[in-house]
Amino acid sequence: MERLNGIVKQVISADTYVLIGAKKGGVSQERQINLACLQCPRLFMKSQNTEKVEEPLAWESREFIRKMIIGKNVSFCLEYTYNNRQFCSVFYEEQNLGILLLEKGYATLVSNKNVKSSVYADLEPYYVQAKERKVGIFGNNIKSYVRNIVYCYNDKNEIRRRLKCVVEHIRDGANFRVYAEKEAANEKREVLVKGIKTNKKNQNNHNTNYIDNPELNGMIEEDTGHF
């Protein structure tokens, strides 16, 4: 099966990534992909209408993958599509990310009767072994691996204080969502870079017409958000 390549722009969860491909019409092409036949714990999510509780080991599994592949070139092959989502096998330095997650106990195996794929059978031995070893989400006391998230807005006590943060999302060149781990709580913040203004990103550029161009592998995109 043909493999495509892309640079990892964002790790939404341990099984869902946003990749950057070649430019088309001057716009960098992006594709959101999901690992085939796997489901990893979901992170805390808050919006205007909903708030989803974080699942055990969601942060640990996401960080395990994020630290490994963020900004790196990965290869992937499309296994199947379902509900307008693309499910793939993803490889970093020839390591199958699905297998790595199963070995750590960071994922469950999911079958879908509506699609045909050999991926489930290929991954099943690693899933069975993880359950037998009781690692990760199959272990004991996993509820202790859930963060208490606090959203922090306009906290005057933090003015001019330097915090060590993890960038969760880059909306554009001057607007970030960051995560700061503190002793009392885990905080999420919206950050605006002072004194600059950048072009706003087109919110509709998760284009499925992804163009694979080997000449761009490993290169940083010129778009401010990608930079």
User: How would you sum up the major sheet?
Assistant: 5 strands, mixed, barrel
| Beta content | 35-45%
**Dominant shape:** globular
**Order of SSEs:** EEEEEEHEEEHEHEEEE
Name the structural class. Answer: alpha+beta
Task: Give the mean pLDDT.
Answer: 79
Count of DSSP-assigned helices: 3
Number of strands: 14
Helix content: 10-25%
First-last Cα distance: 31 Å
Q: Any idea what the radius of gyration is?
A: 19 Å
Poorly predicted segments: 207-211, 213-222
Question: Major sheet: order of its strands?
Answer: 1-2-3-8-7
What is the C-level CATH assignment of one domain? Mainly Beta
The CATH architecture of one domain can be named as Beta Barrel
CATH topology of one domain: OB fold (Dihydrolipoamide Acetyltransferase, E2P)
Structural account:
One of its GO terms (biological process) is mRNA catabolic process. This is TNase-like domain-containing protein. It comes from Plasmodium falciparum RAJ116. Pfam families: SNase (PF00565). 15% of the residues lie in helices and 36% in strands. The protein has 227 residues and is of the alpha+beta class. The chain has a domain of 145 residues: OB fold (Dihydrolipoamide Acetyltransferase, E2P) (Beta Barrel). Strands 1-2-3-8-7 form a five-stranded mixed β-barrel. α2 runs parallel beside α3.
